[in-house]
Amino acid sequence: MIPLVVVTCTLAAVVTAYTDIRHKRFMIKNIDPIVYPGQYRSHMHSFFGSDAVTKDLSTTAELQKGCASGENPNDLSVYCKPSIPSWKSTKGIPTLYYVRGPNDFVEVNPGMFSTYYENIDKAEIPYPQDFFAIAGNATARSQSDVNEGTTGLTWWCENGPEDRQNRNRALMPRVTCSGNIQVILRFPDCVKTSNIKNYAYAAANGGRCPAGMKRVPQLRFSVRYNVRSLIPKGWSGAPPLKLACGEVGEGYCFHGDFINGWFDDAQKNLLKATSRNQWLRVDGARGEGKAGTTCGPKDREPTKGTSDYITSVDMMTMS
Ligand SMILES: *[C@@H]1O[C@H](CO)[C@@H](O)[C@H](O)[C@H]1NC(C)=O
């Protein structure tokens, strides 16, 4: 009996308090409102969340006027990931491409894009108004440029086979996945309330926020790409997949942006998801947390910028 108790306690300690939201991509565009506000000069990004996002860095209030592509009508945050292949990109959030030929890039639209909120029991405050953060390193070219200890960044075959013992953990799998390819990325969970541009990882500071910072829920991106339908014959070695920011088969430069669009009343409920072993739906005045999107999110400025990879590279060269 005693060993059983020990095992139970150990398991309870590793399960983190959480909730999650699923999102549909509604736009691909050569903008990065955090890194290049006001400009059409970024590599391509995929956008999820509030469709009020434009090239300009939005406030929380502006995002809340938009339509959410996620299933929770109380979360008008914007989530982006890098989109189109670019050899000149410096920063942003990349989209994944299937490299079908030398100049033939087919966008891989994630089958599932989920945002998890974890360690909520450790959070001291909700996300401040107008908070935004970047996770990952858009210029990373090797495993040593990646900090898995803070960001958790790793790529693997969701349903096996597991090959990370034979490769760097932020490379894409070197074996054909039996199902989806999955990648995860954790966001900073400490913020200075007097200057919200100042944020950090508790994991980089012995599990506590640095002095003067407060702990917020930890956002984690989880992206699943159904590459089996695109590449039915599979691969051996580097897969013919390329992030907008990196080289074929490499996943080092994967990164993400988050701009807070949560309504205050729903964030109060988000902070209640503190159970270590029970998932909680986050409801709010605008609906149930799994109500789904009905407003038809779309690009608000369809004539501005580009969703074409080659054009986006030209636009980066011109600026
Ligand atoms: C990001 O990657 C670059 C390589 O392009 C590296 O020099 C830098 O140290 C990395 N940044 C971090 C925080 O690891």
UniProtKB/TrEMBL annotation:
Claim: Metal-binding is one of the keywords in the record: no
Cleaved signal peptide residues: 1-17
Keyword Cell inner membrane: no
DUF1996 domain: residues covered: 32-262
Coiled coil: none
Keyword line: Signal
PANTHER family reported in the protein's UniProt record: DUF1996 DOMAIN-CONTAINING PROTEIN-RELATED (PTHR43662:SF12), PTHR43662
Name of this chain's protein: DUF1996 domain-containing protein
